[in-house]
């Protein structure tokens, strides 16, 4: 599949597998649906896996506006509606997790389950917003390669970054960050960084929920995931030892197995 025109944006949508159970994958800032490649390999034998690149990121179009979290919610629901998908499982990391929480609270009938990785339900403190916006607007928007060394410790744990045996994996992740459209990602990031607090929505999430986070997450440390897990009734929290913000890349098989177990338990 390629571009779908939804909610005023051209969104890149890709499908893998053909099971009756549908899983929507939403990605983190700086990436695309490709970040879930290794996990989808483990799931596509049973599940219809659909990745959606956020507007302004990955292979999607880059409109001038519409990057607030409300519009991101409308984007994904628009894709699901266009594909005739009424109910689905959701896997979302970072901003993908934030959007998943909002939708699961507001549209509970559409969610079979929720998996949230390295997310935060809180509004970002202004000091962090200013730090990240300076990095994005003054650096990343001009030349992504100029700030990638500053981003790597935020996004990946030290064991992954410094292991000689993982050098090729680290190089691949660096390339994915650098290969983005710098101005488009910087423009898309501002409303995400300035999003509102959604902790009040957590008690309204009623579907089975798996919350996971890397012990060394430099963007949203484990305390953020604990707040989410404590707020969602009967959710399960797992903290991955020695991993950072991107367990999908740092421990792809581990995350694939955990997602498979979560989905299988719900799907029966």
Automatic annotation (TrEMBL):
Matching entries from InterPro entries are given as: AB_hydrolase_1 (IPR000073), AB_hydrolase_fold (IPR029058), AB_hydrolase_sf (IPR050266)
Source superkingdom: Bacteria
Which Pfam families does the record associate with it?
Answer: Abhydrolase_1
Please provide the record's keywords in A-Z order: Hydrolase
Domain AB hydrolase-1 residue range list: 22-250
> What SUPFAM superfamilies does its record include?
alpha/beta-Hydrolases
Q: Which GO terms describe its molecular function?
A: hydrolase activity
Q: What is this protein called?
A: Alpha/beta fold hydrolase
Source species of the chain: Acidimangrovimonas pyrenivorans
């Amino acid at each position: 599949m390629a571009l779908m025109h939804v909610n005023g944006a051209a969104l890149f949508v890709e499908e893998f597998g053909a099971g009756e159970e549908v899983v929507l994958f939403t990605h983190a800032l700086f990436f695309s649906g490709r970040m879930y490649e290794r996990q989808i390999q483990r799931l596509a034998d049973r599940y219809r896996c659909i990745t959606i690149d956020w507007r302004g990121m990955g292979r999607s179009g880059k409109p001038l506006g519409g990057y607030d979290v409300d519009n991101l919610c409308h984007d994904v629901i628009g894709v699901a509606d266009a594909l005739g998908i009424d109910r689905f499982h959701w896997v979302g990391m970072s901003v993908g997790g934030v959007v998943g929480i909002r939708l699961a609270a507001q549209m509970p009938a559409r969610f079979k389950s929720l998996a949230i990785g390295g997310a935060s339900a809180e509004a970002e403190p202004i000091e962090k917003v200013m730090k990240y916006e300076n990095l994005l607007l003054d650096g990343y928007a001009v030349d992504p390669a100029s700030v990638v060394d500053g981003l790597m410790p935020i996004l990946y744990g030290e064991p992954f970054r410094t292991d000689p045996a993982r050098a090729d994996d680290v190089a691949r992740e660096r390339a994915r960050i650098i290969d983005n459209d710098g101005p488009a990602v910087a423009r898309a990031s501002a409303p995400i960084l300035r999003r509102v607090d959604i902790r009040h929505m957590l008690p309204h999430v009623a579907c089975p929920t798996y919350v996971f986070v890397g012990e060394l997450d430099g963007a949203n440390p484990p305390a953020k995931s604990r707040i989410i897990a404590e707020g969602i009734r009967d959710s399960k929290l797992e903290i991955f030892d020695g991993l950072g913000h991107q367990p999908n890349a740092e421990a792809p098989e581990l995350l694939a197995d955990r997602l498979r177990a979560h989905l299988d338990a719900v799907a029966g």
